[in-house]
Write a structure and sequence with these properties.
Oligomer: single chain
Helix content: under 10%
Number of domains: 5
Number of strands: 41
Strand content: 35-45%
Shape: flat
Largest sheet: 6 strands, mixed
Structural class: mainly beta
Number of helices: 4
Distance between the termini: 50 Å
Length: 573
């Protein structure tokens, strides 16, 4: 073979090798890949109740994980599918939630939802903590995901105050109105902060120095000229509370526009001399624990100018006296509650006078009780939290006020009154005692939780039940797992999941593997799956006991992806 012929033959072999290698690469890109990646959908922090234990009434979902070895971040795998698969799981009822025959389950009234986002000054999502600091959901903690999104279901209706904190933001404090069977939106952005000046004056218009001004969670003290400045306040509807000893505190809502400056002299808060209230309990009945007194305006539909949530509850020892100062000059209703006792009278209505002290007495008489012991491994569970709860807290609250309209719960930041939710700590012998509250609900649920929140016990109380001994057991771990099977995938698929209202970090599901959502509480769920504008599964009911499987047929676009023009228009290359 001559030299020219050999060169031609070598060129042919080289071209064939290149074509073969290209085909192999193309096959590798399209062929299903082994399940060698892992995705973690666990929230940054678990939801908690006001006591640190899971709120049995709210039924929050546990931390959710997708079985894993290595995390795959959003966009970590190349794919031409630009629209994410959206999976929403809603817990209808956990298998561990108590439910008496013929009665609503525990937490039946917790049907409100909250969703929204927190973004920083650049418009990027903030990993923030959102804590309910007052109202019927006090103590519940939410966390936002990598995109700043957050959410929760199983919330009690009414007005709650939510505090927002995170790295790189000044923080915020907002009121949210939560309604049954509805989702409330709360979006807070720190990109266009406002500058706010304000003055604190007395009834004669003279400046008040040393007053504390709490605006959107930030606290400043007024200077000698009565002035305060807030250099950066996130826009939106914010709450201001101004207080100083000797004066009645003032509460006000302000709509703060973005990037605005509220100049000195435009915003003034007037403080009037406060009234004081002295309350005595004449009977030393069950004097080992304190009674709780709740003060609210006589007319709940009036203008909200005083932070009643900052006063309630007032704690008083039976046979003792409590003094409450710096109250507004208005007509108030007083309601006293005590374990194993009934207040005489059940309610008092009095007129408070500015700069004056009003004296009130309550008596106590025995009332039906529920008593028992809490044990753990045969030993007294000292310090265990025992809660006696109506199935529907909202309805129980309304019954205390003699109302049926849920809008009453939006009249103010109302605490959980003891007929709706009563708590006690077990003593050194593991003993507890609570008022039976049979007049509020024929069926009530009793829950005991260990100090560390890892052990729990439940009991159902009916009319006439006077004793319930509780034995703590380990909290059941999330043993449920949902497997979503999708055929035909040959490239990665973006996924966004929301579990019981809580968004998880978006991620990419590698080809050739099922979507597995583990760590779910066993019980009754509803599953909705969407892709782009297609609803692939709508509120599909599933009983998850161990592993449950749902097959979803993906549309062509979720398999083959989108063309270059569509990706370009969506800002993806």
């Amino acid at each position: 073979m001559d030299r020219n012929a050999r060169n031609v033959l070598l060129a042919v072999f080289a071209a064939a090798a290149v074509l073969g290698l290209g085909a192999a690469v193309l096959w590798a890109l399209r062929a299903p890949r082994p399940a060698e990646y892992a995705v973690d959908l666990a929230p940054a922090a678990p939801l908690a109740s006001s006591t640190g234990a899971a709120d049995a009434g709210a039924g929050p979902a546990r931390a959710v994980e997708l079985a894993a070895e290595e995390p795959v971040v959003y966009g970590a795998l190349d794919t031409t599918v630009i629209f994410p698969l959206e999976v929403e799981l809603t817990l209808e009822r956990a298998a561990s939630t108590p439910q008496a025959e013929g009665a609503p389950p525990l937490g039946a009234g917790a049907t409100a939802s909250l969703a929204g986002s927190v973004v920083d000054g650049r418009g990027a999502g903030v990993r923030a903590q959102l804590r309910f600091v007052a109202g019927p959901n006090a103590g519940r903690l939410l966390t936002s995901d990598a995109l700043g999104r957050f959410g929760a279901s199983g919330l009690h209706p009414g007005i709650s105050i939510v505090s927002i904190a995170g790295a790189g933001i000044v923080g915020a404090e907002r009121e949210v109105r939560l309604r049954p069977q509805r989702e409330t939106q709360l979006n807070v952005g720190f990109g266009r902060p406002a500058r706010v000046f304000a003055d604190v004056v007395d009834k004669d218009g003279q400046p008040i120095a040393g007053a504390l001004v709490r605006l959107d969670g930030q606290v400043r003290e007024s200077g000698e000229d009565g002035g305060v400045e807030f250099a950066a306040v996130a826009p939106g509807e914010v709450v201001v509370i101004v207080s100083k000893p000797g004066f009645a505190a003032v509460r006000q809502s302000l709509n703060i526009p973005g990037a605005a400056t509220i100049e000195r002299g435009r915003l003034k808060f007037r403080l009037d001399p406060g009234a004081s209230l002295q309350v005595s309990i004449t009977d030393a009945l069950n004097s080992g624990v304190q009674a709780t007194l709740f003060l609210l305006p006589d007319s709940l539909d009036g203008e909200r100018t005083f932070p009643w949530h900052a006063v309630n509850p007032v704690r008083i020892w039976p046979g003792g006296t409590a003094l409450v100062e710096d109250l507004p000059a208005t007509r108030v209703s007083l309601r006293l509650f005590h374990a194993g006792a009934r207040a005489k009278p059940a309610r008092r209505s009095i007129e408070l006078q500015s700069g004056a002290r009003t004296t009130v007495e309550f008596g106590l008489e025995p009332a039906p009780v529920v008593a028992g012991t809490v044990t753990d491994g045969g030993a007294p569970a000292s310090g265990a939290l025992v809660r006696l709860e109506a199935p529907n807290r909202a309805e129980a609250m309304l019954s205390v006020f003699g109302e049926t309209n849920f809008l009453l719960l939006e009249s103010d930041v109302l605490p959980d009154l003891p007929p709706a939710l009563q708590e006690a700590l077990a003593n050194a012998q593991g003993e507890y005692q609570l008022s039976a509250n049979e007049e509020v609900a024929a069926v009530r649920y009793l829950t005991a939780t260990s100090r560390d929140g890892k052990r729990v016990a439940h009991a159902v109380l009916r009319r006439g039940d006077v004793r319930a001994d509780l034995v703590l057991q380990p909290v059941a771990d999330g043993r449920g797992e949902l497997v979503i099977q999708m055929d035909g995938r040959f490239q990665p698929l973006p996924v966004e999941a929301r579990v019981d209202g809580v968004p998880r970090d978006p991620f990419v599901l590698p080809p050739g593997r099922d979507l597995r959502i583990a760590g779910l509480p066993e019980g009754s769920w509803q599953v909705t799956v969407r892709w782009n504008e297609d609803v692939l599964a709508r509120s599909v009911p599933l009983e998850i006991r161990g592993e449950a499987t749902l097959h979803v047929a993906l549309p062509e676009g979720a398999i083959v992806g989108q063309d270059e023009e569509t990706r370009r228009r969506a800002g993806k290359r």
